Amino acid sequence: MKYAILGFIWLCAISAGFSAVTAFPAFAVDNMQSTDAPDLRSVRAKIDAKDYVGALAELRGLAEDNQQADVYNLMGYTLRKTGDYKTSLTYYTKALELQSDHKAAREYLGELFVETGEMAKAEEQVASLKQLCPSGCEELEDLQKAITAKNGN
Questions:
Q1: TPR repeat ranges (predicted)?
Q2: Who contacts 41 (Cβ-Cβ below 8 Å, separation ≥6)?
Q3: Those residues with Cβ within 8 angstroms of residue 84's Cβ, 6 or more apart along the chain or in another chain
Q4: C-alpha–C-alpha distance, residues 38 and 91, integer Å
Q5: Angle 103-115/138-152 helices, nearest 10 degrees?
Q6: Is the pLDDT assigned to residue 90 strictly greater than 50?
Q7: Considering only CA atoms, which of 39, 74, 69 is closest in space to residue 56?
Q8: How far apart are CA 88 and CA 55, in angstroms?
Q9: pTM of the full structure
Q10: Exposed/middle/buried for 86, CB within 10 Å: 0-12, 13-18, 19+?
């Protein structure tokens, strides 16, 4: 009986080891998202409420601890909404350095160029968005609307 129990334990250990070894490659190949991404719901709620000062305060703390494209993009957006175009440009650039296909950063950077009258640069962002979403996307539509509105004035 004692040997049967030890044999059973040995069999379980071997099975567990085999499962761990065979599961590891599947985990490594999987395209998993980072689990250390910050929760931005509170920041987005403040932005939706147009509390840019509150959002900016929260984002500054997050930006110190997180090199994330979403954090930098929202930092750029919030700074742009407070009128700090120069620093806004810096954060959009950082977001795109981390993730060149970040559609929201491309849209918001284009909107920054529209607001500062740099229409050729805004059109460059339109071209980038057309490549990122050839079937169209909300970010492309929003930037094109901003350009049309500026050209209509």
A1: 69-102
A2: none
A3: none
A4: 17
A5: 10
A6: yes
A7: 74
A8: 14
A9: 0.74
A10: exposed
Token pair belonging to 64 = 């110190």
Query: What integer is the mean pLDDT of 86-110?
Result: 97
- The structure tokens listed for 105 are 């950063």
| Residue 1 exposure: Cα atoms within 13 Å on the Cβ side | 0
Give me the residue label for tokens 């640069």: 121
Q: Output 75 or 25, whichever has higher pLDDT.
A: 75
Helix segments in the chain, DSSP class H: 2-29, 41-48, 52-65, 69-81, 85-98, 103-115, 119-132, 138-152
The structure tokens listed for 80 are: 């742009």
What distance in Å separates the CA atoms of residue 40 and residue 49, rounded to the nearest whole number? Answer: 14
**41-152: CATH superfamily:** Tetratricopeptide repeat domain (1.25.40.10)
b/e map of 40-71 (b: 16 or more CB within 10 Å)?
A: beebeebbeeeebebbbebbeebbeebebbbb
The candidate with the shortest Cα–Cα distance to 128, out of 148, 101, 146, 147, is 101
